[in-house]
Request: fold
Amino acid sequence: MPAFPAAEWPVATCLHGIPSVLADGRSLHEAGPDAWDAAFAQVSSVGFALAELSDSHIRPADLTSSQRAELVSIAAGRGVTLPSVHVQRQSVVEPGRGERNLEYAHRTIDAAAEMGMSVFSTGLHQPLTRAQRRALWFWTVDGAKDPVGDQATWELAVARLRDLGRHAAQVGLRVSLEMYEDTYLGTADSAVRLVEEIALDNVGLNPDVGNLVRLHRPVEDWRDVYAKTLPYANYWHVKNYTRDEAPDGSWATSAPATMEAGVINYRQVLQDAVGVGYDGIILCEQYGGDSLGVCATNQRYIRDVLAAAERAATPASAALTIS
Reply:
């Protein structure tokens, strides 16, 4: 049986559609209550009752306890709950900053628990390079890479992520590790191996396969990636891209798309996820254009697909009785 009815499945939005820097130059993080209220008013206006709090916009670890409580209250006043926090580009194995990032992650876990969240999401990707920041789409330029075949760095990643997982378990949070290119979470096999070596029940994968299919280079087939990673998923960023590529791998191109229009067949993937017992939040994410609007479109698509799967799984005799 699905973990939730289609109409009740926790579907959240990212905050990419909300500027992280206001017109007056202040960051959303420092701007405070009025700006936070305006942000969640936009989230609510497109039909979302759940929003992921990414530290690209607001850093709960760097708020006071009273500010955290006020943030939760402001969101609730707009009908929005904050079920998860996403720490991005703060890799615990980033050269020169790994220990600092680990300490920040621990503080974020405590802040998330205090705010009543259920998921701490992070990954091993590092800050964008200058060239990536200058590009139209940052994923078209190579960024930092985890060292391939470096056993010491691999073991450090396992140990530090296990440390975060144990802390999160103590305060009732899941830890979800986001797939991202050129990191130890950059391929299906490596991501699965990492979670298996961490070996904690509350640590799983965020199989954000959109991060991979958008790359302008040869990539793993999305079907294979999902087949291997969905059984380990405990939180899920979903987004899609159009993709075209040369048969010989000499070129590839991509652009953001709705979940329905892109290269990943999410109708099949959502059904597969339900089939393997996925029971986590589905987080709509989108880059470019009207991000919130596309996420709203994707939420409707997700619920329609889940509802269709429900109807298909209902025996005809039961359907007649209900009608």
